[in-house]
Amino acid sequence: MNDFNQYIKHCLQLAEKGMGYVAPNPMVGCVIVYKDKVIGEGYHQQYGGLHAEVNAINSVSDKSKLVESTLFVNLEPCFHHGKTPPCCDLIIKNKIKRVIIGCLDTNPLVAGKGIEKLKQEGVEVITDVLKDECRELNKRFFTYHEKNRPYIILKWAQTKNGFIAKLPPFTREENWITNDTSNEISHTWRAQEEAVLIGTNTALLDNPKLTARLSKGKNPLRVLIDKDLKVPALNNIFSDEAEIMVFTNKVQSAKNTISYHLIDFTKDIIPQILEALYHKKITSLIIEGGTHTLQIFINKNLWDEARIFTGDKIFKEGLKSPAIFGEEISAVSIGGDTLRLLIPILKMN
């Protein structure tokens, strides 16, 4: 068996099926090959559920073949007891003698310990097969463990002449910039990520629900920066469709799906918010706030990618879109809208 890449690619395809369901765990796929034939496969389907290696091994009908099989997995098998037992122990128990790994797990609870244990038990281990592709798939997981913060996605829509919104007063219909397809894509993103954040002004002016109602996935955690609790209780963001965290300087008791978190607004609030989300094990965050909120993250170099819609509209006046400088990775047309993906040129954070 010489072409390890094809099997790791298959692992990645399987792993991606877990997007939106397994966080804060990584997306992992596993393939078991016996004499150049796949005899088992599986992926991590849901947080708290069985890991990819377990599902793959369970799918093998003739367990006697495992002794002469090779197990492929895009991420180092876990070493520690979490919600499920260590996958390393299961691999050793089934006497699988060779394991091919896409990339190492940088979670301090694993971080090479899984590989070390397998080698100690006589398992041949080969690592770093399609390493970059494997890290890219789990960029949220790696950012969380390596930078101690969520993976941050900036998202906004702007007109052809660079406005993010009209000047109030306006109706939602008058202020809408993109088409229905772009809107559906935005909801899909919400279902894929763990949290979405806005500030007070966006909540008051746009009155968004911040749910993934146009997608089949789950709703994200909604995060609201509301220093003086100006957003009224009847605002759509307080619907009971999803959990909401409110960052404020006012003492307020939690109720229903709403929790309140005191932060010091005389200091830099962004690190405080990111630290709170880190401790809540939020691995990804979409910033959907207005220009002010978005610009704060941009100026602090606290972003990992920006997704910018440019609609086929022109406003005579309005609120200018954020100023951002980054490397354009792609630009695609969506029924008259253009969607650009940017990443930072220098990641200083």
How do the helices and strands line up, and which of them pair or pack?
Blueprint: H1 4-15, E1 29-34, E2 37-43, H2 52-59, E3 70-75, H3 87-93, E4 98-103, H4 113-120, E5 124-126, H5 131-137, H6 139-147, E6 151-158, E7 163-165, H7 172-175, H8 180-192, E8 195-199, H9 200-206, E9 221-225, E10 244-248, E11 258-262, H10 269-279, E12 284-287, H11 291-299, E13 305-310, E14 319-320, E15 327-334, E16 337-343
Parallel strand pairs: 3-4, 4-5, 6-12, 6-13, 8-9, 8-12, 9-10, 10-11
Antiparallel strand pairs: 1-2, 1-3, 7-14, 13-16, 15-16
Structure description:
The protein is an alpha/beta fold and 349 residues long. The protein has 11 helices and 16 strands. The longest helix has 13 residues. It has a 9-stranded mixed sheet with strand order 11-10-9-8-12-6-13-16-15, sandwiched between helices. It is elongated, with a radius of gyration of 23 Å.
Determine Rg (CA atoms, Å).
23 Å
* Biggest sheet architecture: 9 strands, mixed
Unreliable segments of 5+ consecutive residues: none
The structural class is alpha/beta
What is the element string, with H for helices and E for strands? HEEHEHEHEHHEEHHEHEEEHEHEEEE
- Largest sheet: spatial strand order: 11-10-9-8-12-6-13-16-15
- Number of DSSP strand runs: 16
Mean pLDDT: 93
- Into which percentage range does the β-strand content fall? 15-25%
Helix content: 25-40%
- Spatial separation of the terminal alpha carbons: 41 Å
State the helix count.
Answer: 11
Q: What is the molecular shape?
A: elongated
